[in-house]
Amino acid sequence: MSNKISLCMIVKNEEINLARCLQSVTGTVDEIIIVDTGSTDQTIQVAEQAGAQVVSYLWQDDFSAARNVSLELATGDWILFLDADEALEPGSAGGLRQAAAADNEGYFVKIINLIGVDGNYEACPDLVFRLFRNKPEYRFRGAIHEQIVDVILEHNRQAAFQIAENIVLRHYGYLDRQVSEKNKKNRNLAIIKKQIECEPNNQALRYHYGVELYRIDNFAEAAAELTRAANNTDPGTIYYPKLLRYIALAHYGARQYDRALEAIALGLKFFPNYADLYYYGGLIQLELNNYAGAFDCFQHAISMPEQPAYYAPFSGSRGFRAYYQLARLAEVFGNEEEALRYYILSLQDNAAFTLPLPAIVRILNPREDPDYTRQALEKLCDFCTGDAKRLIGTVYFTEGAYRLAFEYFEQLEPAALDDYTTMLKAICLIQQKRILEALRLLDAIPLNHPQYPLARMNEILCFWLNKNRTKVRRLCEDFLAVGLSADTGAVVTMLKDSLYKRGSAPPALLGPEGMSLVQDIVLRALDLQELQLAESLLSKVAPETKKEYALDIARIFAHYEYWEQARRYAELYLEEQPEDAAAWCQLGEALQHSRQTAEAGLCYRRALSLAPQQPQYYVKLIRLYQAMRQELLAEAARRYPDIPLFRELQEEAAKQ
């Protein structure tokens, strides 16, 4: 019995993708039929070089019509149909031959959808129908998301379909570059909408229409359309799990959280092991500040078994993404040890998912113990590539661990050292007071270079941090002559005047750009324990601007444990924003570290009254009271050493 396989494709302007697709089937299929619908690039030449039979066809906004042209030309016993942005995975050739030798009418195969950007994507599996017997009555139907399974069943009620486990496709069409090039979303929506007018009761078509509405962020209409399709679709339909998930996501996108949770609850009745539903349920519970509900959902997600391909599971929903959310929850409740455990589990589950890395570094606090942080992370991760070294160096830089950041930047090969990383290296040198080395890097950046303004600003800071008034004045005047934005110019003038008791300019009214620059300079001054310089610069900011950004400034002082200044700026902010719970919490933290515990407690209570849904304020207050209890018991035990009760209570408190 012959088992000849014909690959049938329709293409247009696919010279980039087509070569990869055809190379993947070389030696696997017996003939290649390609219908070109109007290519203006080298697509036809690529196809012909691969030995394909190519026929041109005038595009009529109908995918089925074009596909059926390829079927008419196919001489094989079996039809394998692919898109140009797909490829057969290595090792699938044997699966194809095995499937063609079996007594089935067609096959679903696993497809791995790559989502994201080239080189940094995630893999999401799904099931698609791609292999069937070549019979004249089997022809595609539907202008888009063309159907063949229903057609086969109409002609052969006894037709047997199976999942071909050993055939795997890889789909590149959801990569950002591909989507933007093809403008797929708008094209698909227009075609489906036109077809629905002809087939209003086609539920599969309505499902695809709802998905396209979702993809263009028309969430409310997508939810209504998908719900209508679900109500009229057999739950045994292969895409039914995805349909229910899309309903939940559409309601979520429309901020209809109660409806989204209802859809998730319904979906779990049909598919109780569907990890995606638990994961998205957790995200929705977070939006509702239902932390216990979110925790329960994410815990269920990580306990789910391996997901079947027809669920089209979202990458990481039962692994690294759920672990990451559990870690964030632990941080909300002040449990850094538990947070660290979950962040590590997330990173171990997917090393390419790097969001946990900054959080891990922040918890390890490399400024306090850089060597321990480095050793701990190097046990967890192998920073062996240039990209990995740049990434961890940048994370350390962001956390103010400039020595560690510089060590990793220094390990980069010269060819891998881009201009931005060179600038970060220079800043690391400045923060280590290695001024001459920093100046050599900064002086190498020419006037017309994009990094020139940042280089000149950091050159000024080299001398400003060393309180060289003459040099700072000259450099500032030269920099101002270049022509700067109003905010940057104002900050440069502030730097020029801040080393003098009396400046030449009035306090500056600054916008976001200027205050971002000021905050960065203050942070770097405090990192070098130059409190006077930081306060001198801030004195040049107009009072109204200072009040607007006072909470951000308070947080910078708190980060470097300048608690008196943190308290002062938190109070300044509260003069204008007395209903800001975060500001009251910041003030409470500053007072607590200044040993004004009673006042700190009042601040935490005020934060709680303004935002009772935020558990971190309860945690702050509880820990404050625990500390107060231990101090009080210690004092009582010292004053009354012969009374056992105080010692017993002190020991009890120490155990808790």
From TrEMBL:
Q: Which CDD domains match?
A: Beta4Glucosyltransferase (cd02511)
Q: Write down the superkingdom of origin.
A: Bacteria
| SUPFAM superfamilies according to UniProt | Nucleotide-diphospho-sugar transferases, TPR-like
TPR repeats span which residues?
275-308, 581-614
Q: Which InterPro entries match?
A: Glyco_trans_2-like, Nucleotide-diphossugar_trans, TPR-like_helical_dom_sf, TPR_rpt
* Cleavable signal peptide: none
Domain Glycosyltransferase 2-like per the UniProt entry, residue ranges: 6-116
What Gene Ontology terms describe what this protein does at the molecular function level? transferase activity
Under which name does UniProt file this protein?
A: Peptide S-glycosyltransferase, SunS family
Q: Which organism is it from?
A: Sporomusa termitida
Taxonomic lineage: Bacteria, Bacillati, Bacillota, Negativicutes, Selenomonadales
